[in-house]
């Protein structure tokens, strides 16, 4: 009976190796779609605007500059 146990050890090792090899060689999906879409949105947001930003000339005030009443 002890000899059968010693024969099962290498058999279990081979079984574990086969399972690991199948898992390691599985077909993986390429999930770059969402990442590339996010990068494209970032690039679009970082593009300079076609119109220059509005500037406040001297003498004009902005609502944020007004003193509270």
Q: Which descriptors apply to this entry?
A:
0% strand, rod-shaped
Description:
Residues 50-69 are annotated as: Disordered. The structure is a single chain. The protein is mostly helical. 55% of the residues lie in helices and 0% in strands. The chain has helices at 2-24, 32-46. It is rod-shaped and about 100 Å long. The mean pLDDT is 81.
Topology summary:
Blueprint: H1 2-24, H2 32-46
- The helical percent reads 55-70%
Spatial extent as radius of gyration = 33 Å
Number of strands: 0
Order of SSEs, N→C?
Answer: HH
Which stretches of 5+ consecutive residues score pLDDT under 50? none
**What does the oligomeric state look like here?**
single chain
- Report the span from N to C terminus: 96 Å
Residues in β-strands, percent: under 5%
Q: What is the global morphology?
A: rod-shaped
User: Helical stretch count?
Assistant: 2
Largest sheet: none
SSE class? mainly alpha
| Mean pLDDT across all amino acids | 81
